[in-house]
Every structure is written in C-alpha cells, then in structure tokens.
Write a structure and sequence with these properties.
Helix content is 24%, strand content 21%. The chain is α+β, with helices and mostly antiparallel strands. Strands 3, 4, 19, 20, 21, 22, 23 and 24 form an eight-stranded mixed β-sheet that branches. An eight-stranded antiparallel β-sheet has the order 8-9-10-6-7-13-14-15. A hairpin with a 5-residue loop joins strand 14 and strand 15.
Length: 620
C-alpha cells in the first residue's frame, strides 16, 4: 500500500497545521491514517510563502538548512476527474493503527497479515474502507459474508512524541508469550466503559479487561516504549519514557508547535520592502544580469506582484543595500513582537502596503487618560509555521524547562522546508498611556494582586517539576491580557465575526530600552471570515468608547460571584485570579496564553478588590 496512491478523504489545508499535521492521526469515517513526514510530501506542489522574519525565527529553531515556508498542497477545484493525476494531489498517509477489528466477529489482527482487504471508492474517497472477507461470525456458524473492519481504538503514546500500536498480544497474555493465537475483541455490559471492553485469545482462551491498561494499572501492565515514529517509519532506540494508553482521536495524541508573525513593512521605500519580502529569491544574486532572470521567473509565476515595475539596476541596488546592511539577520521567536511594536507605534504608520493598511484615529474621550493611541488595521496578514509537535502534554505547559516534552521531528533528516499558511484579516491596536500605567503598577492593591498571582504561578510550576522563578509575564501583561479578553467578548457580539475567529497579541515587554503596553485584537481566517470590515468599523472613537464601557461594566459582576471575585491563585496554585468562563475566558483559539494569567480585578473594581483596577468608575 505504501507504493500506491489511494485517495481516502479530505481535510482543509489549514488543518494540516493545527490538527492533522505530520505525525497526527486523521480519524476518517471508516479509516484511521497517520499523516507522513514532510520529506515524503511533493515539495513542488507546495507553494512558497514569503515572510523573512518568520523564516529567520524558524531557522533559529530548526537550523539554517530551512530554505522556505510552504503551503500544504491542495487541489485547484472540487470538480476533477477522479482518475486524473490531479486527483492524487494531497499529502501522503498510511493506515494507523495497523491493527483492525472486524465489527461482526471481533477478530483483531494487523492488516499486513492479509486477513483484511481494502475496498476503494474513487468517486467518494471518504467511503474507502477495510473489510473482513468471508466472515462467519464469532462462533463460525454464520453464512460467509464480508464485514466491515474498523481501526482498533487503543494506542500507546509517550511524552517524547512516540506513538505505537497497542500491544494486544503482550497485554492479554500478561507479558511475553509464545502463544500466537488469534485475538478477539468483545463487549460485556450495557456501557462502553473500559471495564466492559475485553480482548481474548482464541488459542489459550485467556482474556483481559481494557481497564487494566489505564491509570496506575497501565504502568504495571504495559511494556516500555519502543520509540516508534509511524509518520517517519522508524524506531528511536533507548526511549525511557513510560508509554500511556490513549484512545484513537484523543486530543492529547498530537499538539502542534507553531510560530506566527504579522507581515509588517520594514522599510519606507517600496522597492526595498518588495526585495525584502522576496529575499529568498534575491539573496544569492551576484550581479545585475541575474536580476533580470529572477524578475522574469517571478513575473511568469505571478510571485512577488509589483517587482516587474522596477528596472533591474534599481532592484540590484536594493539587493546590494540589504546585503551590506545584513537586514536578514536571524530573529528568535521572542524577538518577533519587537519589530511589530515599532511599526504599530510609529507616528506615521504605513498606510498603503499591500499586506498592512492602517489609519490612526483618536482614542475614545472617556478613556483618553488610559489609552494613548488607536490604530485601525484595515488589512493585515498573519503567517503561521509548523515546526514540530508533542504528544501527551501540550508544549506551552512546559515551556522554558528542561523537563518539557521533546519536540518531535517532522522529517527523517533535517527539514529543508516547513509547512505554513497565511491568513488575511483586520484589527484594532490600542496603545496604553505609559505614565498612567506606571503609576497604576505601584499601587499597594496592585502589588498585592501581583504577589498572589506570582505565588500561584510558582505553585503551578512546582507541581509540575518546573523552575518556579521563570515564565511569569508580569502584572502589566495580566491587566492587558484581561482587558483584551473582555473586549474580544464584547466585539464578538457586534462585529459579525464568530468569537473563535477573533485573536489577540499582547505587547507588554518591559525588559528592553522601550517598554511596551499595547493590545492588538484582530481577525485572521483562511476564508472570507477575516476581511468583512466589521472589526475596523467598531474601532472608531464613538463605537470603541461604547464597547469599552460595556465590556468593563459587564465584567464588574460575574454570574459566579462571589466565588469568582474571591478566587485566589495562591490557594489552588492556578494561573488566574478573578476570572472564569462566565466573565473573562475566551476560546483557546483566540487566546495566546490558553486562558492563563487573567484577573478582572486589575481592570475593574470587584467585591473582593475595589482598589486594584486600572479603569475607575469615571469611565461611564
């Protein structure tokens, strides 16, 4: 099967970054498959994305051999001939788990043994399925008839990114055994709880409940990790992590590790910006003669629109200038927001760049003391790159720690490119008054709230064996983050976008020479749900002032008060204080911190803390 191309289903290109990337399982209606490593993808069918800052950040993590960011392959039309070459455009997958179960007789076996056959459906790929040919039932007394075979829904995974078939023979025989009898899967009870799911050996009649594979019993009854990477077809020797039994389709079987950046203009001169945007095409140019060829190829492929308007000598001059200034130095992931902040706070922000169109407006009158400037982004572009994944534990839970789960590889060798996608949208940027914010930070009530949040942060990290002295973003970040959530919830009611499509970027770095204090709320979606214009319209002074007032007033009293307002982060070692789903949490696709580091008492007065708020009662 590995040499044949058999379409088995469809996913959206964006899902290959966030849900079904390399190493992830795709649970189709009748099959379960694993997406193979990017070194098996057809690179020529993956269109490149130009974003030098993000590429530099990816190189700082994966190495200088990464040459490009590329979109996953996709078909140009839905109406195509199923027997044409275009019908085979997609990403390679292989069946996983390898063990299948007959729904009629309960037979458990690896499909490689030839007991199950594949029935293809060219016209409806999602209906392709395995079947048990000539099944006669569990007792062998029924007429022979083909029966569907479905994936066995139990797997093994470990924190180092390994994924393996469930050890059915080892498990039912309680260890290594010479018995090679066929296995049967059956249910004994009204519910489908694990204690009612059994596996039995036909030859020696021994059986065992799947309840012994989970929890504390699982550590005693399961073998060690074999270090298997099914998407790479290899085994890592010497994995010391304890494997865990997981269900097929469980959300903890694959967590993406991504880096994102906003496409921002770095130069005032249009030609310099164009060359910078397409720097991967120009970086190796050695003469003006080569420029003519490069521009001709770019124009023919409709890449880098606008570059053909300039003469070769002008482009060569821009290339030399960028080469001499070393404008493409490596940027780490933490440095990505710095250039964005400089562009967003520029007195004369760019207003006519194709991927960044903005205009400044006045801050709402009622909030002139707290908010310094407002910038409406009528068009922006966000680029996301997938650099790896983890299993069992999400990467953000253990960031900046030696105990964090290893980032699993997407390729057998060092990657030459990484999957990426770009989305367009609009947004509102709020820059806060630095003087007012500095005065607020030294208020005794604020210092008290910060101490509680810091204690909760330390307790949370201690409970997970992490360094408790790192990773706290600061009280400024918590306040800005909370206000961002309150405003997202309010905007979603009026802007026309669904709440999950609105995202945030919080700028609160105080370690550099220029302190940051800003929030960017934007929408960026792969379809038209990102450029409707509703969000920018609500950024005008009158609308924004009304929405801020409503958001703050709505946060004063939570339906879970007084439990919510009196919640202390230190007591239960949590990463939020006065916050819950009823008042300030948003969809995790919207939040850059996974609904952590939130406290509405820092934004508005609450029953428990009336004096720590940044916005007083005078903003009516």
């Amino acid at each position: 099967m590995s040499t044949l191309k058999t379409p088995v289903g469809e996913v959206r290109p964006s899902q290959l970054l966030w849900t079904y990337g390399p190493g992830a399982l795709v649970d189709l209606p009748n099959l379960s498959v694993v997406t193979m490593g990017t070194d098996r993808w057809e690179k020529d069918r993956c269109q490149p994305i130009e974003e030098p800052r993000l590429l530099a950040a990816v190189r700082s993590v994966l190495g200088d051999q990464v040459s490009s960011l590329r979109m996953p392959p996709f078909q140009s039309s839905e109406m195509i001939d199923p027997f044409s070459a275009e019908a085979n455009i997609g990403v390679p997958v292989e069946p996983f788990p390898r063990w299948l179960r007959c729904v009629k007789c309960g037979l458990l076996s690896e499909y490689d043994l030839g007991l199950f056959d594949l029935k293809e459906n060219k016209f409806r790929p999602e209906r392709s399925r395995f079947f048990h040919k000539g099944c006669k039932g569990s007792k062998g007394d029924q007429p022979a008839r083909d029966a569907d075979a479905v994936p066995a829904r139990f797997l093994l995974a470990c924190r180092d990114g390994h994924l393996d078939d469930f050890p059915w023979h080892y498990f039912v025989h309680r260890g290594p055994s010479e018995c090679k009898g066929s296995l049967r899967f059956f249910e004994s009870g009204a519910s489908l709880q694990t204690e009612n799911l059994w596996v039995k050996c036909d030859q020696c009649s021994i059986s065992r409940s799947l309840a012994h594979a989970f929890g504390k019993s699982g550590k005693e009854n399961l073998p060690g990790c074999r270090g298997r990477h099914p998407h790479l077809g290899r085994f890592d020797i010497g994995c010391k992590e304890q494997p865990r039994a997981v269900l097929l389709g469980a959300t903890n079987s694959w967590f993406p590790i991504t880096i994102s950046a906003l496409a921002i203009p770095m130069f005032r001169e249009p030609i310099l910006q164009l060359v910078q945007d397409g720097w991967t095409n120009f970086e190796d140019a050695e003469s003006e003669a080569e420029i003519k060829t490069i521009v001709r190829i770019l124009s023919k492929n409709a890449n880098l629109p606008g570059i053909d308007k300039y003469k070769p000598d002008e482009i060569w001059s821009a290339v030399q200038q960028l080469q001499n200034n070393d404008a493409t130095h490596e940027i780490t992931e933490n440095e990505i927001k710095g250039p964005e902040w400089k562009v967003l706070t520029d007195p004369k922000p760019p207003s006519d760049w194709p991927h960044f169109m903005s205009r400044s407006v006045l801050a709402p009158k009622n909030f002139a003391n707290q908010i310094q400037t407002v910038l409406l982004l009528e068009r922006l572009r966000e680029v996301n790159a997938l650099i790896g994944f983890t299993r069992v534990e999400a990467p953000e839970e253990n960031s900046e720690s030696d105990l964090s789960p290893d980032r699993a590889d997407m390729t057998t060798n060092l990657p030459e490119w990484v999957p990426a996608n770009q989305v367009h949208g609009e947004g509102i940027f709020l820059r806060f008054n630095e003087e007012a914010l500095s005065l607020w930070e030294v208020k005794p009530a604020v210092i008290e709230r910060e101490a509680d949040l810091l204690a909760g942060h330390r307790g949370w990290r201690n409970a997970r064996g992490l360094d408790p002295e790192i990773g706290f973003p600061g009280i400024r970040y918590v306040m800005l983050h909370t206000l961002s959530h309150l405003l997202i919830r309010e905007l979603a009611l009026e802007c026309g976008y669904n709440a999950a499509s609105i995202k945030e970027r919080v700028y609160a770095d105080t370690s550099g020479s220029e302190t940051q204090a800003g929030v960017l709320i934007y929408t960026a979606a792969a379809d038209s749900d990102g450029t409707l214009g509703g969000l920018v319209e609500l950024g005008n002074p009158d609308n924004l002032g009304r929405l801020l007032t409503q958001a703050i007033s709505r946060a004063e009293i939570c339906s879970s008060d007084p439990l919510c307002s009196e919640h202390k982060a230190e007591k239960d070692r949590s990463l939020h204080s006065a916050a819950c789903h009823a008042c300030s949490f948003v969809a995790e696709t919207s939040c850059e911190k996974g609904n952590r580091y939130i406290d509405r008492a820092l934004v508005i007065s609450t029953f428990d803390s009336p004096d720590a708020c940044y916005f007083g009662h005078n903003n009516e």
